[in-house]
Specification:
The complex is a heterodimer of chains A (166) and B (286). By secondary structure, chain A is α+β, with helices and mostly antiparallel strands. Chain A contains six helices and five strands. Helices cover 39% and strands 15% of the residues of chain A. Classes of the chains: A alpha+beta (166), B alpha+beta (286). The interface between A and B is medium-sized, with 32 and 32 residues. Bound molecules: flavin-adenine dinucleotide and FE2/S2 (inorganic) cluster (2 copies).
């Protein structure tokens, strides 16, 4: 019983076909089957946010899904965001503002931040904090992370305004 | 921990899903957003032989106003409720409560029907459905039936759903020009389950309360209606005296849990404070 099931999905712009056991979480599938270890597994119960990935462009916990559920979906991990230059400015801001220490929470933080940045709004500091309420960081105390995101939001906004004026 | 092995099917229709459950002799579970079920499987609190994925069944999804009811399809997700203009217009109490439901990534997957089926007494939407006198549309082999929300929550995580039955939709009476509402909750940290929370949905006749629904979360084994407080407020104008009486009635209406960090009396105190605040800031439909 419980044989493997065929799934086909898009991961970081590549078509993936695989056979998975139904109980394999998306987090384990990405990390173990696809060797995409940028997605971290911490609490494995939806609390820490280290496992966030984008499913159809929305941040979702990879530990709270089974790989069989994402058959036909478009998945993007922190590796995908990095390689298509979607968060280069954000990563630079994290680096310069020391928004990571051990780095365990960072992929999840970047995915949440990507969600904030792609909402098209200019969130207040309070709203950024709120949007990060499901991401734990045991090292930084959050201040630097919020700074880095706030800075990237501001820079993108100014670039957009400058572009519209030009 | 990892979930015990199980089989998985993703039916295309409610009919097919009900049949799959029947064929599994009850050793099955529906999975919608999975935001509560997946952790329960990982902790092995549940270990069904079969998971029936209902998240993509089209007829279970979506929002619509049918006559004087807002129909919320069971697999409508929390973020859709949060962003919906239809909900903001016709069930604004739900829009008010939606930002308090979990964190953004969980709202992207979790569903309205899943939340009601789980019946967590600390959850926002089941409690708001109770304040709003919703009706639950249940699909089963024996045919569909409708259950008034007041008869739906039976005990801690216990509902009127029989084995194999599925929530198809939830129907909510739409707000009118006479509607006034408010929601708030007190939590130690944003996004955490609240120490106590409440929603109020009132119909006004001039400056008098004609009808009122008040429901509390984290104040008993189920979402809790404050019937005594409602009786005191019904037919009255809001005065300090009446508000105080309603606050005192909560001692009888509610049955909050207590632990060393949050004793029963503290939750009751917070509930009284919260009711006072909410009655003081009832708003009209936008
Ligand atoms: C870290 C964390 C924090 C959270 N915080 C909050 C919070 O603050 N407030 C809050 O309200 N919730 C919170 N939740 C829970 C979240 O909202 C869940 O998504 C929701 O309660 C269940 O919805 P679901 O679609 O994910 O259900 P699932 O997990 O898929 O299912 C839950 C249960 O309902 C059954 N079920 C699902 N759909 C149906 C249906 N249509 N008919 C019959 N049975 C069905 C399943 O078989 C299962 O038993 C939190 C969850 C996590 C992991
Ligand atoms: S590993 Fe998914 S939230 Fe912690
Ligand atoms: S940098 Fe260590 S957990 Fe955030």
């Amino acid at each position: 019983m419980s044989g493997k099931i065929a799934v086909s999905l898009t991961v970081n712009s590549e078509e993936v076909e695989a056979f998975v056991a139904p109980r394999t979480t998306l987090a384990d599938f990405l990390r173990q089957d696809l060797q995409l270890t940028g997605t971290h597994a911490g609490c494995e119960m939806g609390v820490c946010g280290a496992c966030l990935v984008l499913i159809d462009d929305q941040p979702v916990h990879a530990c709270l899904m089974f790989a069989v559920q994402v058959d036909g979906c478009v998945i993007e991990t922190v590796e995908g965001l990095t390689s298509r230059d979607a968060i280069t400015d954000l990563q630079k801001a994290f680096h310069e503002r020391n928004a990571l220490q051990c780095g365990f929470c960072t992929p999840g933080m970047l995915v949440s931040a990507y969600g904030i940045l792609s909402s098209g709004k200019v969130p207040s500091r309070e709203e950024i904090r709120d949007a990060l309420s499901g991401n734990y960081c045991r090292c930084t105390g959050y201040e630097a992370i919020v700074d880095a995101i706030e800075r990237t939001v501001g820079e993108r906004w100014r670039a957009k305004v400058a572009e519209e004026e030009a | 921990m990892k979930a015990r092995a199980f089989e998985y099917v993703r039916p295309q229709s409610v009919e097919e899903a009900l049949r799959a459950f029947g064929d599994a002799d009850g050793d099955a579970a529906y999975i919608a957003g999975g935001q509560s079920l997946v952790p329960a499987l990982a902790l092995r609190l549940q270990a069904p032989a079969l998971l029936i994925d209902i998240a993509r069944i089209e007829e279970l999804h979506g929002l619509a106003v049918v006559r004087d009811r807002l129909r919320i399809g069971a697999t409508t997700r929390h973020f859709e409720i949060l962003n919906s203009e239809l909900v903001a217009e016709h069930a604004p109490l739900l829009s008010k409560a939606a930002p308090f439901v979990a964190h953004p990534a969980i709202r992207n997957k979790g569903t309205f029907g899943g939340s009601l089926a789980l019946a967590d007494p600390a959850s926002e939407f089941p409690t708001m459905a109770l304040a709003l006198d919703a009706e639950v549309e249940i699909a089963s082999f024996a045919g569909d039936r409708r259950v008034a929300i007041a008869d739906f929550f039976l005990g801690l995580y216990e509902t009127a759903l029989q084995s194999g039955e599925m929530i198809r939709a939830v129907h909510i009476p739409v707000a009118t020009a006479k509607t006034r509402y408010a929601f708030d909750e007190l939590a130690r940290r944003r996004g955490d389950y609240a120490l106590v929370g409440a929603g109020v949905n009132a119909e006004y006749d001039g400056d008098r309360i004609e009808r009122i629904g008040i429901a509390f979360l984290s104040a008993g084994p189920t979402p809790m209606r404050a019937r005594r407080a409602e009786a005191i407020l019904t037919g009255s104008r809001l005065t300090l005296e009446i508000i105080r009486e309603a606050q005192e009635a909560l001692d009888v209406d509610l049955d909050p849990p207590g632990d060393e960090h949050t004793p029963v009396e503290m939750r009751l105190h917070l509930a009284r404070v919260l009711l006072g605040r909410l009655l003081g800031r009832l708003e009209a439909r936008p």
